[in-house]
UniProtKB/TrEMBL annotation:
CDD domains: MFS_MdfA_MDR_like. Pfam families: MFS_1. Residues 15-399 form the Major facilitator superfamily (MFS) profile domain. InterPro entries: Efflux_drug-R_Bcr/CmlA, MFS, MFS_dom, MFS_trans_sf. Belongs to the major facilitator superfamily. Bcr/CmlA family. It is a multi-pass membrane protein. It comes from Actinomyces lilanjuaniae. Keywords: Cell membrane, Membrane, Transmembrane, Transmembrane helix, Transport. This is Bcr/CflA family efflux MFS transporter. It comes from the Bacteria. NCBIfam families: efflux_Bcr_CflA.
């Protein structure tokens, strides 16, 4: 198999861009929608907790989509599951745009997540097919940097749409994004898993693969490091709209611009990480990210508990929590996947499942305070960063190799 680094630059760039589109599903589907939370709550005559459940439904769908899409791509190849995922995601957006009540909106979000999860997990498996060793960590970081454009653009676009239309218009825009996913998968992503490398055995093979994965201590440790870190980050994503608009009084556009700035910081640091990863041990970069995230959570807690939700330190803490993920997600995922390259689809599915469960759990818990209190968000953040450090400590000191395995 020809590695990505040996392919023509244009082809590599096109492939990375296509994969970035597939992995931009979560930020686009959550961040473009998040400025509309208060409007959805009022329009559908529901509660902040119920609106938080639309995020939970999306990430439950993401989990199921990845759990199905990863192993299916190991058996059937990469392109077809990716294209099918884009189509299902598009249909889910249409259901959301037409939803007459919160129940249908939750179901539409579940469908949207199902298709998006399948496309995203197959996209990451394609990257594992074509990049090895430290280059995998480098490309994971580049992919994260490109994908981070989505949360920069999405909330601003969502805020702009809300100034001229309703929250339903946001989902019509997401329908267009689903079509873009499908088109880029069909036109720019080659089949990277030839028939002789495909797995067989159906459900029995999947169960066997999961057993292999959970028996790998480092794989599980880095998987949980990423998941718990995402748990802390998603406390910010799911509740910041209520807190910054409802408690501190930011306008939807001001909130969207701040949200975009936090995503921009993550993108810039992802580029820095991509350049550092061949010179600094990836697990040390994970520790750096976890340290910055922990400091950010402390700043947020002080702002909420001691300073009565002071805007400036609160935003500073949010910025640190978001930007720190640039050193956590790409490196921890590459470290985990480097252990189990022979079952890349199933491994990516389990990674995605853990992350989706963490996100789905964090959303309703962190947003349960609505615009009344930020304390639930702080509690979720503390649990997340503590869990991430605990998982990292189990595996971080056992990695003695300077570079990731090449095969």
């Amino acid at each position: 198999m020809t590695s990505l680094s040996s392919r023509p630059a244009a082809a590599s760039t096109g492939l990375l861009l296509a994969l970035a589109v597939q992995n931009a599903v979560p930020p686009f589907a959550t961040d473009m929608y998040s400025p509309a939370f208060p409007e959805v709550t009022a329009d559908l005559h529901t509660s902040a907790t119920s609106v938080g459940l639309t995020l939970t439904a999306f990430f439950v769908g993401m989990a199921l989509g990845q759990l199905i899409g990863g192993p299916v791509s190991d058996q059937r190849g990469r392109r077809l599951p990716m294209v099918a995922g884009g189509l299902v995601c598009t249909v889910g957006a249409v259901v959301c745009a037409l939803a007459p009540n919160i129940t249908v909106l939750v179901l539409g979000r579940l469908l949207q997540g199902l298709g998006g999860g399948a496309a995203a997990v197959v996209g990451r498996s394609v990257l594992v097919d074509v990049a090895h060793g430290d280059m995998l960590a480098r490309f994971m970081s580049i992919l994260m940097a490109v994908s981070a454009l989505a949360p920069m653009v999405a909330p601003v676009a969502g805020g702009a749409v809300l100034t001229v239309g309703t929250w339903r218009a946001v989902f019509w825009c997401l329908m267009g994004f689903g079509l873009l996913m499908t088109a880029t998968a069909a036109l720019l992503v080659p089949e990277t898993l030839p028939p002789h490398r495909r797995q067989s055995g159906g459900t029995r093979r999947l169960v066997s693969g999961v057993r292999v994965l959970v028996a790998r201590r480092r794989f599980v440790g880095y998987m949980l490091t990423s998941a718990f870190s995402g748990f802390a980050m998603f406390a910010y994503i799911s509740s910041s709209s209520f807190i910054l608009q409802g408690i501190t009084g930011l306008s939807p556009m001001a909130f969207s611009l701040f949200f975009a700035s936090t995503a921009g910081s993550q993108m810039l640091l992802s580029v820095v990480n991509a350049n550092l990863v061949t010179r600094v041990r990836p697990h040390r970069l994970v520790a750096l990210g976890l340290s910055v995230s922990a400091v950010g959570v402390i700043v947020v807690a002080v702002s909420v508990v001691l300073l009565d939700v002071a805007l400036v330190p609160l935003c500073a803490g949010f910025l640190m929590v978001m930007s720190a993920q640039a050193f956590v997600f790409g490196n921890s995922s590459a470290l985990a996947l480097g252990e189990v390259r022979h079952v890349a689809g199933a491994a990516n599915a389990l990674l995605g499942l853990a992350q989706a469960v963490a996100n789905a759990t964090a959303a309703p818990l962190a947003s349960s305070g609505g615009s009344d209190t930020a304390v639930p968000m702080v509690v979720v953040m503390v649990v997340g960063v503590t869990g991430a450090w605990a998982a990292y400590t189990v595996v971080g000191r056992t990695t003695q190799k300077r570079h990731l395995p090449e095969a």
